[in-house]
Amino acid sequence: MVFLPAKDAGQLAPIPDNIPISEFMLNEKYGRVPHANSRDPYTCGFTGKSYSSREVANRVDYLARSLSKEFGWAPNEGSEWDKTLAVFTLNTIDSLPLFWAVHRLGGVVSPANASYSAAELTHQLLDSKAKALVTCLPLLSISLEAAAKAGLPKSKIYLIDVPEQILGGAKAPAEYKTVGQLAQAGKSLPPVEELRWSAGEGARRTAFLCYSSGTSGLPKGVMISHRNVIANTLQIKAYEESYRNDGGTKSPGTEVALGLLPQSHIYALVVICHAGAYRGDQTIVLPKFELQSYLKSIAHFKISSLFLVPPIIIHMLSTQDVCSKFDLSSVRTLFTGAAPLGVETATDFLKLYPNVLVRQGYGLTETCTVVSSTHPHDIFLGSSGALIPGFEARIMTPENEEITAYDTPGELVVRGPSVVLGYLNNDKATKETFEDGWMRTGDEAVIRVSPKGVEHVFIVDRIKELIKVKGLQVAPAELEAHLLAHAAVSDVAVIAIPDARAGEVPKAIIVKAPGAGSDEEVSRALIKHVEDHKARHKWLKGGVRFVDAVPKSPSGKILRRLIRDQEKEARRKAGSKI
Fold first, then answer.
1. How many angstroms separate the CA atoms of 62 and 79, rounded?
2. DSSP structure class, residue 194
3. Residue 497 near residue 562, CB atoms below 8 Å
4. CA distance 9 to 389
């Protein structure tokens, strides 16, 4: 059985497939809120520095001129892969204008997670074949190490401005050009020619190369087309239009939104940075999460829409002594994604903030974000909302048969216009995940009907092996391969265990190599081994447990569910509540 959006989910507008994202976002003829009626799309939450909608359009133009001269990139010459720019930075108000300038030239942007280690960034630089790297001063040392390993010269490294408040007085070395300097130089350069794309070219050309662990295994480059981003932006707009037009927001049709989540992550990249700007919203950009600056920004800018992940919500609940000191009365909507939000947590939040609509969404990098979302008129706590316009879904058994009954779990398989092109240089993973427009999510789900009679998606488990730490993906296979390289390890399995702050954290189940030393010594060594080479969200915060043998099937597959059950029982006996 194919599940469809509700009849009143909204009418999806035609999706243009012959223009780049930059044209769609900045040209009023494609349905965006007119520049004159838009709030400032991007405002710094620390300094208050802000760009109007027209200023963003001008900045994109100037940066496109400058990048064209700097790199020799011409809009209608070569393929997009000749013009790949890696961006490794904290959130800034200059990120999206930079991205769209690259798209204006027909190039690819490959955003990297700001928590990456040098080794992880090196992998992305090499795999994407990035021609240059834009970073920020706090991440410059990691960038230099990664660029050297990837063979990228210093002359191809550029800096983007971040607020003085997080620099601690540090000054950028004069040898690196900045994005601000490039934009200024572009003002005196001749305009670049318009892109000339034929029908379907926007659907074939990659715009963003985002790295995801997919449904299993090591991080892969996800090829996201221009049409994918355009489609999901239009899907979100159509789904929420009735709410925005009925006075559901304080300022009819537009909102002031929080831009805290990493702009490298598909959730923030599309839902906040693209859909928000297209609909005339203002995004208050914060470089990273810090409780005081987060709360101050909400109070000062009168933020009405919070885009968060469950660990931040849980942190708010556990720090009410701090949160209660700030005026958060402007908040009308809380939207959460990247990992499921439990009914209990949502209920606890509503007890403290009863006037806030708690919404949840579901999506993946491979679906270019939102597949389902809670509509403000149909709140069903615990669900990931209903399908948005343009998406279809099936629930499949392990034998690949369709499940037709409600409340019966199976793998969620989806199809829609924002499902991506596939994985870069990885035909095997692409074929395993995508087929005839359908995408196997690797998530176990059920369909349940809300009190209003609408079919909702509930994510109940992960068939795929990914661990979600503060909404960020951790592939057990990646950590297992790294740990197996250590001389003290004979065999290993990495699993997720619950954590009150992060949602989940990795824990390593280790079979020691002969003569490896005491458990305590090996545990310390392995934790350090991971911390020295991997991003913080991949660290073994769940600890290490030693076993005589890792449970495996006859075919050699790690029995993760059995290991997780063993861990759960051990926590229960120890009196743990999670």
1. 22
2. P
3. no
4. 6
Which residue type, as a one-letter code, is found at position 515?
G
Instruction: List, as one string, the DSSP characters of 89-118.
Output: -S--TTHHHHHHHHHHTT-EEEEE-TT--H
Domains defined for the chain, CATH in brackets: 52-196 (3.40.50.980), 467-573 (3.30.300.30)
How far apart (Å, rounded) are the C-alpha atoms in residues 327 and 322?
A: 11
Q: What tokens were used for 564? A: 């997780």
Nearest Cα residue to 485 out of 519, 450, 451, 525: 525
Under DSSP, the state recorded for 376 is T
- Confidence (pTM): 0.86
Radius of gyration of the chain (CA): 23
Give me the residue label for tokens 């064209």: 68
Between the alpha carbon of residue 130 and those of residues 110, 112, 122, 426, 431, the distances in Å are 8, 11, 10, 18, 25
Q: What is the DSSP letter of 415?
A: E
Which of the 8 DSSP states describes residue 365?
A: G
Measure Cα distances from 35 to 51, 283, 478 in Å. 12, 15, 45
Question: Given CA atoms 358, 366, 266, 464 in this order, what sign does their dihedral have?
Answer: positive
Cβ-based neighbours of 363, under 8 Å, separated by 6 or more: 266, 267, 337, 369, 370, 371, 372
- Per-residue model confidence as pLDDT tens for the chain (578 residues): 899 999 999 999 999 999 999 999 999 999 999 999 999 999 999 999 999 999 999 999 999 999 999 999 999 999 999 999 999 999 999 999 999 999 999 999 999 999 899 999 999 999 999 999 999 999 999 999 999 999 999 999 999 999 998 888 888 899 999 999 999 999 999 999 999 999 999 999 999 999 986 555 567 999 999 999 999 999 999 999 888 876 554 445 799 999 999 999 999 999 999 999 999 999 999 998 899 999 999 999 999 999 998 888 888 998 999 999 999 999 999 999 887 787 888 999 999 999 999 999 999 999 999 999 999 999 999 899 999 999 999 999 988 999 999 999 999 999 999 999 999 999 999 999 999 889 999 898 999 999 999 999 998 877 777 788 987 878 787 888 789 889 899 889 999 999 988 889 999 999 998 889 999 999 999 999 999 989 999 999 999 999 999 887 655 667 887 898 888 888 888 777 66
Length of the chain: 578
Give burial (CB, 10 Å; 0-12/13-18/19+) of 477.
Answer: middle
> Interior CA angle at 121 toward 120 and 127, to 5°?
95
Angular region, 222: left φ>0, alpha ψ -120 to 50, beta rest: beta
One-letter identity of residue 104: R
E-only strand ranges, 144-235: 157-159, 206-212, 220-225
Q: Give the amino acid at 40.
A: D
**326 contacts: CB under 8 Å, gap ≥ 6:** 295, 296, 298, 299
d(CA 320, CA 483): 39
Element (H, E) at 63: helix 53-71
Return d(Cα 231, Cα 208) in angstroms, integer.
14
Both structure tokens of 193: 């020619």
Letter for the amino acid at 27?
N
Q: Give the residue among 61, 53, 141 at the shortest CA–CA distance from 93.
A: 53
Least Cα distance to 211 among 100, 85, 79, 113 occurs for: 113
